[in-house]
Structure formats: structure tokens, C-alpha cells
Amino acid sequence: MTGPDPAVAAVRLAVRRSLADADADADADLGPVVVACSGGADSLALLAATVFEGRRPGLRVVGVTVDHGLQEGSRRQAARTVEQMAALGADETFTVTVTVEDAGGLGPEAAARRARYAALDQVADHVGAAVVLLGHTRDDQAETVLLGLARGSGGRSIAGMRRAFERYRRPLLDVARDDTVTACQVEGIDYWDDPHNSDPGYARVRVRTRVLPVLEEELGPGVATALARTADQLRSDMELLDDLAEQRFAALGSPLPTAVLSGEPDALRRRILRLAVLAAGAPAAELFHDHVLALDALVTDWHGQKWIDLPGHLRAARRSDTLVIERVRSDVPPPDRDAGPEAG
Fold it and tell me: Which CATH number describes the domain made up of 6-226?
């Protein structure tokens, strides 16, 4: 008796390991597992593998497709995906229609992503799921790393997508996109090719269709695998530094003592500053490296700067050898920037 096709086996093994990890982390029974499904090869292969692996532990698999309403015929495609999820054996299916609003000026991709995660959270809460599976592959990870490098976004971006965060897990980060396509073909699953995935107007598409093929041709095969491996290695370092920064931030308290902060290594101090701004209520998506560097200058290059404006209607200022981050009252006019440093 022969086993499954290697591509099918690779996807199933990845899901099996992810579910085992999730089960080990759960305080009680794992409960329902939500699978985000766009109707593309990656997510349909993920759903089929989750249904297959879920038969043994008796998991309830819930398939969810999110209709962003950004393309003509999106409602029809969402309905088709629901039919496919049910045919593949999902115990329950949902379609969530969202309105994508780029209120924060983040761009259409980021705005759509925010709306999608909000919809997935809503369904997960409704069915009582502690785990939501996402279909990002090794190729997606490689593209993320390259984009981070090109944009100079620092270690956090180059470390790529996390394998797990909150209730979300990405089982397929070690699986090639070609394997998900092959798995669908072998299992007779008719997947959807999203037109956005071939639109050169998106930087990620240009990386996928132009940049990575050139790198593979000039440097040899395996570039995507090497980039994904780099992300894994860097992610471990980033998580360690983030953990250390959280411990130091908790120990330092608020307001932050500048004398103590100035003695911290750059990588740790800047993470502590970022945590302080987030704790004060700044939106993470609007907090950039330039903000953190300006804050850092208040600590390490103090020469009477008045204050730093921050996202979320916040302001940071140095007072009596401490760094204070506070919300700006809308009914109070800003102080005169030329008035000189505040008295201690």
C-alpha cells in the first residue's frame, strides 16, 4: 500500500506538528480549530490537511473565508470557497464580509489585513476556538524577508512572519508554495488564482515574479529556503531581546529614569522605549523607527529638546532626569517650542 503524494504528506505533517504544539500549549482541550481560507492553493491545501489530521484527535474544523469586497465578483468567489470547504469536510463554514477602510494611512494591504484579522477573531470568539491556522508558506516568508531588507525595516521585519502569535499559527512556513499547488492537484482541489497575486502594482508580487527568480538564476536554487531559514535564526534572537526588554521595562517602571536607561545597550534601550510608547497607547502600526530614535536622543543626546510628538496623540518629554510619555489634551494649546528647556 503506497502512502500519500510527497506534497500532500508535507502539508499534512506540517499541520500535524502545529496542532500537536497547539494542543501542548492549551490549558484544556484544544476545541474547535479555525482555518482561514481564501480559496487559493495554500489555504485549501491547509484546510484539507487539517480535516485529515483532525479525524484522529476528533477536532472540529471551522473554515472561514473573508470577503474584502475589493474585487469584482468577490461575493461569488467567497460563496464558492464556502462550498469547497464544506466539500472538503469542514464541520462548519463561515463567510465574513468586511469593509476595508484605510483610516490610518497604512495602505490598502495593511488595511485589508487589519480587517481580515478582526473578522477571524470574531469567528474564533463565536465558536470558542483557541487556534486559528493561516496558510502562509515558505515562499511568503522569503518574500517578507526580502521586502524587509529592501525597505531597511530592521531586524523585526527581516525576522519575517512569526510561526505563532496569540491564537494564530502558521503551519506551512516550512512548506513550499509549489507543494501546496501540487497537493491540491493530486487531491483534485480546484483552487483560485487571486488576480492580486499577479498584479505588478504590488511590491510583493514584483518580488515573487521578478526578484526571486533572478536571485535563483544568479545565485543558484534554494534562495527562498535560505531566506526563510535566516528569518528563523533571527527571530530567535529578536524574541530573546524582546523578552529581556519587557523584563527591564517592568522593573524600571514609569516615568523612565534616564540615567539608568542611558546605561543600557542600544538594542535593549530602544526596545524599552518602544514598549513604553506602546504601553502609553500608541498604535503599533503607526510607531516607526524614527520615533524611537528621537526618543533615544532624549535619553542619550540631551541638549534641551522640548518634546517629541508621537502617534496616538502622545508626547514625550524629559523632566527631572526622567522620560515622561503622556497624552496630549486636545483642549490645551501646545507650548512654545522656542521657550527653551523645561525647568527641572
Answer: 3.40.50.620
